[in-house]
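Posted in: Protein Modeling Q&A

I'm a second-year student putting together a small comparison for a lab meeting, and my supervisor asked me to include a predicted structure for Proline iminopeptidase. I've never done this before, so apologies if this is the wrong subforum. The sequence is pasted below exactly as I got it from our records. If anyone can share the structure token output, I'd also love a short note on what stands out.
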Amino acid sequence: MPRLRACPLVLLFAASLAHAAPACKPGQPVEESGFVKIGGIEQWVTVSGDDCANPVLLYVHGGPGNPTSVFGAGPYASWRKHVTVAQWDQRGSGMTWGRNRPGEEVPLSVEQIRDDGIEVTRYLAQRFGKRKVILLGSSWGSMVGIHMAKQRPQLFCAYVGVAQMVGYRENMTTWGTVLERAKAAGDAATVAQLEALGPPPWTNPRNFGIVRRAVRKYEAQTSDPTPTAWFQVLPHYATPQAKADYTEGEDYSFLKFVGWKGDGMASTTDLYRLGTHYELPVYLVQGKEDLLTEPQVTRRFFEAITAPDKALFEVARAGHDPNAPLIDAQKRVLAERLEWRCD
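Accepted answer (user: helix_wrangler)
Welcome! Here is the predicted structure, written out as tokens:
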């Protein structure tokens, strides 16, 4: 698999951040991908935009273990004229997994991925000559992202959380909500499945997958579908090895997230423990039909936080997964709240 692919602005990703000198002429497009030394290992970073002088937006992917770099700019393609979109395959995911295959005994933590993300941010700021970047995290990426924002607010001009995870205990209301939906629909099969699991916490990692499938089933009835054009895998990631790396990384990250006995990273998450004051603007985008990170949970968290500026955007016809209404709402945040700027 090629180590580097960069066009039209050639990128020689450095072995360390110390060598990442700015190389950008205003008006010059940027399309870059390669490995960067982050947190002691080589991690995959991609950058895409119409003008490398534009603000940089770092997208923190969900899962864990579901990097979206395989789709290129995907749903964010229309943002290219306003911002340079950077993506990063987190430790244990995608191309980063393929480069560094940790053993099952190697731990994975929110704090470790947070620190990696901060290092990626510093790399991007130095690479493109920026004081700050825009930080956007979705689903699991919102848990990582908000930890990054809390730890190093001076690196970011704003934090945008999409389908914001709040904490294991708070977000485990999903099981009861979906069970009630299934009962109301007379869906005996789903009711039987969910009742057999019993309420969380669970010790069997398969239980999370059963609930997730039920969530998708019922969200599909009330939200707009995701455009298939957004998620066409680029040729670079479509090789047998790249596909295997993606799947293996997804499995590894999921098991580290839920744990074999309900003792994974998920069980340690609780944003209230971080404190509810943030030293940068915080904007949350929430699908009204989201059954995984439910609106009432996000709303309570939003009401508890203080920040220089904050706003909650609740989106109709949107669930947990990205679709046109959810992406449009994110674009409105960047256009209306930030005016596509990052000062």
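A couple of things worth pointing out for your meeting: The chain has one domain: 4-171+228-337. The mean pLDDT is 92.
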